[in-house]
Design goal:
Blueprint (H helix, E strand, L loop, with lengths): L4 E8 L3 H12 L4 E5 L6 H6 L1 H19 L15 H25 L2 E10 L4 E6 L4 E11 L3 E3 L12 E2 L1 H4 L8 E5 L3 H12 L3 E5 L12 H13 L3 E3 L2 E7 L5 E7 L5 E6 L1 E4 L3 E3 L32 E3 L10 H17 L11 E3 L4 E6 L2 H6 L4 E7 L4 H5 L6 E7 L5 E8 L2 H13 L4 H5 L9 H12 L6
Parallel strand pairs: 1-2, 1-5, 2-3, 5-16, 7-14, 8-9, 8-14, 9-10
Antiparallel strand pairs: 3-4, 4-5, 6-15, 11-12, 12-13, 17-18, 18-21, 19-20, 20-21
The chain binds flavin-adenine dinucleotide (FAD) and 1,4-dihydronicotinamide adenine dinucleotide.
Protein name: Dihydrolipoyl dehydrogenase
GO cellular component, one term: oxoglutarate dehydrogenase complex
Keywords: Disulfide bond, FAD, Flavoprotein, NAD, Nucleotide-binding, Oxidoreductase, Redox-active center
Length: about 475
């Protein structure tokens, strides 16, 4: 081993949490290294998550629209064909461009990019098994763990990424399956089910709970979303749990039973996607060498300033508490560097938006009706359907609505929930409103350009504190 190098900061993991932290540290002149074993920066999000999934969602939506939805728009197209290989190629090009972009930003901000697997030797030293062979030891005043998460496996159903796949396999199948079963109707399940349904697969989503969307989605929105997705051809089995899987035969067999009541059934598929959640990843990190423990869900335990019980070792992103979202990881990355440098930082966990990129998109920020009921908060509701919005009508895209939840007494916005085209962009306005402590009247009295989908947002706010004009 070479002699340890002394740095201000070492970050283990070059995902969104790690790379953003490294750039922020580099920008302010810290001597920083970021260790990543994958061979590319950007982590799950850029390589096998947010970015490739959105590429496939966008292009499969275009394919489906051109194949099935042009006639009423006055466009006659010929024989529309799918070139899955080229669609995957377009995805790979987007991913490569973005991961290389992060590498460029590392150079620009003097971040030492160390390609290899890092593990704790002691409280200040990390040993890196270099991808190219050999090892390097880094010594630092501060260490950030940003090692992310991995797909939770389904017991007894081994993931081979060909017939039994996680989201990673779903992003690079070489053929569209005839029959696909998706275990878990959360965000990964629904996004990937949408992609393959649009490309022609017969897809059944099995969900243990009585509603789709995973944790946090307002139940009125979840119901509406399910109806729309079912119209697109997706099949759902709710209140149904998968008890066993068997991939030894020609097709994969999935035994399911009613969550209550025990009625059993066997589903068969060419490809089964396991999408039952993700879990923190700390394998091989050597936490035991510094006496750091994880909780019952594998999360490294921290305080409000992201500190472990060893104060100069901090943890951010998917590997610790909070929603497993890239923009949450990014916020924490900036905050943690501010904590290290100046002793204070800021993330508003009450205003982190969530977006499901199906068609139409579903987006929300703040609390759902279920949250408010549980907390016994008195609230009022405002609604505006896209079917009454001029731009949505012009675009022939009228599915969905905007819903506001506001304090019954003060009118302060408590939650915004949208289902509709472009909901993922529109939610930024709701997030800003929540961050600023706005009332629905504040939003309703703000001029919105015409004709835009955002006018539905304004009118939903109007309908919360008074009356909408167009509905
Ligand atoms: P990760 O991105 O997982 O990065 C951790 C990195 O650490 C990895 O690259 C890993 O190789 C590296 N690493 C681990 N251990 C070591 C070690 N010992 N030494 C060196 N390197 C190590 N979120 C959104 O907000 N929007 C989306 O649209 C979205 N879509 C998604 C789609 C899919 C299919 C999936 C799976 C996830 C999606 N997510 C999305 C979630 C998002 O990807 C994560 O929240 C985000 O990547 C978390 O960032 P992170 O840096 O904490 O962890
Ligand atoms: P999830 O937690 O969102 O959903 C998993 C679903 O599987 C739940 O609804 C659960 O009830 C169900 N389930 C669990 N066990 C089951 C069983 N045995 N049988 C049937 N159903 C079962 O997890 P998912 O979809 O895997 O996503 C993981 C994380 O990735 C999410 O937390 C999300 O934050 C992130 N992500 C974000 C995206 C976005 O922001 N657009 C896209 C994709 C992922």
């Amino acid at each position: 081993a070479t002699e340890a190098e002394e740095l201000d900061l070492v970050i283990i993991g070059g995902g969104v949490a790690g790379y953003v932290g490294a750039i922020k540290a580099g920008q302010s002149g810290m001597k920083v290294a970021c260790i990543e074993k994958r061979g590319a920066l950007g982590g799950t999000c850029l390589n096998v998550g947010c970015i490739p999934s959105k590429s496939l969602l966008n292009n499969s939506h275009l394919y489906h629209t051109i194949k099935h939805d042009t006639k009423k728009r006055g466009i006659i197209v010929g024989d529309v064909q799918l070139d899955l290989k080229a669609m995957m190629g377009a995805k790979d090009t987007s991913v490569a461009g973005l991961t290389k972009g992060v590498e460029f930003l590392f150079k620009k901000n003097n971040v030492d990019y160390v390609k290899g697997t890092g593990a704790f030797v002691n409280e200040h030293e990390i040993k890196v098994d270099l991808n190219e062979g050999g090892e390097r030891t880094l010594r630092a005043k501060n260490i950030i763990i940003a090692t992310g998460s991995e797909a939770t496996p389904f017991p007894g159903l081994e993931i081979d990424e060909k017939r039994v796949i996680s989201s990673t396999g779903a992003l690079s199948l070489d053929a569209v399956p005839k029959k696909m079963v998706v275990i878990g109707g959360g965000i990964i399940g629904l996004e990937m089910a949408s992609v393959y349904c649009r490309l022609g697969a017969d897809v059944t989503v099995v969900e243990y709970l009585g509603a789709i969307g995973g944790p946090g989605m307002d139940s009125e929105i979840a119901k509406q979303s399910q109806k729309i997705l079912a119209k697109q051809g997706l099949k759902f089995k709710l209140n149904t749990k998968v008890v066993k899987g068997d991939a030894s035969g020609e097709s994969v067999k999935i035994e399911v039973e009613a969550a209550k009541g025990g009625k059993q059934e066997t589903l068969e598929a060419d490809v089964v996607l396991v999408a039952i959640g993700r879990r923190p990843y700390t394998k091989g990190l050597g936490l035991e060498n510094v006496g750091l423990e994880t909780d019952d869900r594998g999360r490294v335990v921290i305080d409000k300033e992201y500190r472990t019980k060893i104060p100069h070792i901090r943890v951010i992103g998917d590997v610790t508490f909070g929603p497993m979202l890239a923009h949450k990881a990014e916020e924490e990355a900036v905050a943690v560097i501010e904590y290290i440098q100046q002793g204070y930082g800021h993330v508003n966990y009450g205003a982190i938006p969530a977006v499901m990129y199906t068609y139409p998109e579903v987006a929300w920020v703040g609390q759902s009706e279920e949250d408010l009921k549980k907390a016994d908060v008195k609230y009022k509701v405002g609604n505006f359907p896209f079917s009454a919005n001029s731009r949505a009508k012009t675009n022939l895209d009228t599915d969905g609505f905007v819903k506001f939840l506001a304090d019954a007494e003060t009118d302060r916005i408590l939650g915004v929930h949208i289902i509709g085209a472009n909901a993922g962009e529109m939610i930024a306005e709701g997030t800003l409103a929540l961050e600023y402590g706005a009332s629905t009247e504040d939003v309703a009295r703000t001029c919105h350009a015409h004709p835009t989908l955002a006018e539905a947002f304004k009118e939903a706010a109007m309908s919360t504190y008074g009356k909408a004009i167009h509905y």
